[in-house]
């Protein structure tokens, strides 16, 4: 079972919103609702991720999105770099987690570690 939703504070709402629009597009995740100071990202109308300017300083967190396949992991990583994120782990196998773990990691503008992962079972 995946997570229901996640919300966190960002320093610059508009810059972070634009970053996540580009980063999550390869995973078919987009904005499903938005106000002047927060946005909800998801798929099929279901919210998965909320970002906003909630008044508290942001602190770094780690979270992972499920990817369809390796190609989506690669597209996620490329989109993250192009959107201004920093490489925090190029696409590749992560056997230390389990033999079928294939992932990439991007650090977003607020220092959050964002992952796309596909669990391949042979």
UniProtKB/TrEMBL annotation:
InterPro entries: Glyas_Bleomycin-R_OHBP_Dase, Glyas_Fos-R_dOase_dom, VOC_core. PROSITE patterns: VOC. It comes from the Bacteria. It comes from Kaistia soli DSM 19436. Residues 2-119 form the VOC domain. This is Glyoxalase-like domain-containing protein.
């Amino acid at each position: 079972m995946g997570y229901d939703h996640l919300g966190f504070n960002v320093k610059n709402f508009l810059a972070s919103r634009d970053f996540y629009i580009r980063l999550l597009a390869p995973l078919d995740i987009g904005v499903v609702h938005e106000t002047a100071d927060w946005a909800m990202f998801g798929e099929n109308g279901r919210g998965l991720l909320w970002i906003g300017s909630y008044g508290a300083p942001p602190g770094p967190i780690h979270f992972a999105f499920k990817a369809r396949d390796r190609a989506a992991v690669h597209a996620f990583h490329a989109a993250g770099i192009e959107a201004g994120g920093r490489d925090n782990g190029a696409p590749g196998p992560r056997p230390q987690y389990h033999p079928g773990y294939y992932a990439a990691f991007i650090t977003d503008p607020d220092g959050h570690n964002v992952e796309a992962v596909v669990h391949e079972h042979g």
